[in-house]
Amino acid sequence: MLNLFIVLYFIYVVVSLMTAYKQMSFVSKRKKQKPAILNENDFEKAGDYVEQTQKLSIITTLVDIVMFAFWLSFGLVWLDNILLDFVSWQKAVLFIDIFILVNWIVALPFSLYNTFVLDKEYEFSNMTTGLYMKDTIKTGILFLVFGSAIIGIVALIVEYFHNWWIYGFVFVFAVIILINMLYPIIRDKMFDKFEKLSDEELENKINSLLQKVGFKSSGVFSVDASKRDNRLNAYFGGLGSTKRVVLFDTLIKKLNHDELLAVLGHELGHFKNGDVLKNIGIMGLILFVFFAIFGNLDENIFNSLGITNEASSIIAVFMIFSPVLSFFIMPMISFISRHNEYNADKFGSDLSSKENLTSALLKLVNENRSFPFSHEWFIFFYYSHPPLSKRLEKLGYKESE
């Protein structure tokens, strides 16, 4: 079984590297051809950015291989040995906290380079050192408090229940639902500044749109996203009574009212089509399968790794190999998601107009300087949204000569 996981891991690595290389080569050639959607300078610059991000992706994948080898050959045994004197749930918390901390430290230089070099060079990032440190500290505190508590509870479930993976799934899935409900409140209290819209006319138009489709929310808010990033975005956050409409301040500045309503109409399409509930259901199914696999691992796997078969080891093995399984499952999920995006575009254009949604998407791709084309492999494995060129084509957009 361990050999199978390792084989799958190396297939995952090879496919990841090949996909990154194909994307880089495709964009390198396409950016030199006739520009589309973006002007000539931005078209080439957007292509350059894609190339740089894929080079970084290749490097991080190679580092991941080293870390994979480290954990399987030495790291897990080392952690297992230094934490022998702790009871099961305490050992699990410390084991996983140290595991995540080591991986975070190794990944930190690449995160810093992406934020403070690459994104700065292409004028995406407004992040300051102080804000980055504050975000990191707050995220660390949240994980140490709540993440450690979740790990401890899962460890106790492993210890006291025979079919622990069933109860573990139910608990973790419930936690994920709770996090989705509380997400906008956590962002508001700890990271972003949510404010009621100052534009009363826009707020009234949005509320009228929400009432038209029967979407009940706790309010319409603007968020100061520009302190971190110049990209435009909007989303519906939360579940149940915590649902809220969140508009990036960058989006409000760049789009007119009709375009904003078209973008929100697209998001409301996901609500009316039941995409949110479908996504939760799919996520729950995948999580259940993962718990079933890792909850019934053969004892020989742990013996081969030189570690004991207990909560700390099970969770660590889960964290090492679940991204591999996810990589091969995600194309199916992404295919469904891309289909849903087209349907949401249709709903948004019917609610507003094709012209307004097209105009909004054109502004989004230009302001975000998104390269409008990608290699088919890259789309297959990574795109949860169709390329903007395809979405615009579906809306009937034809670029003038």
Polypeptide structure, described:
With 401 residues, this protein is mainly alpha-helical. It has one domain. It has 14 helices and four strands. It has a four-stranded mixed sheet with strand order 1-2-4-3, sandwiched between helices. Strand 3 and strand 4 form a beta hairpin.
SSE ordering: HHHHHEHEEEHHHHHHHH
The SS-based structural class is mainly alpha
Number of E-state strands: 4
Percent helix range: over 70%
For the terminal residues, how far apart are their CA atoms? 58 Å
Shape: globular
Overall domain count? 1
Alpha plus pi helix count: 14
Spatial order of strands in the largest sheet: 1-2-4-3
- Alpha-carbon Rg, integer: 23 Å
Provide a concise account of the structure shown.
The protein is mainly alpha-helical. The chain has helices at 2-30, 40-82, 88-121, 129-160, 164-191, 200-213, 249-254, 257-272, 275-294, 299-305, 311-351, 354-367, 376-382, 388-394; strands at 194-196, 220-223, 234-237, 244-248.
List keywords for this structure.
single chain, 401 residues, mainly alpha, four-stranded mixed beta sheet, 4 strands, 74% helix
List the helices and strands and how they pair.
Layout (H helix, E strand, L loop, with lengths): L1 H29 L9 H43 L5 H34 L7 H32 L3 H28 L2 E3 L3 H14 L6 E4 L10 E4 L6 E5 H6 L2 H16 L2 H20 L4 H7 L5 H41 L2 H14 L8 H7 L5 H7 L7
Parallel strand pairs: 2-4
Antiparallel strand pairs: 1-2, 3-4
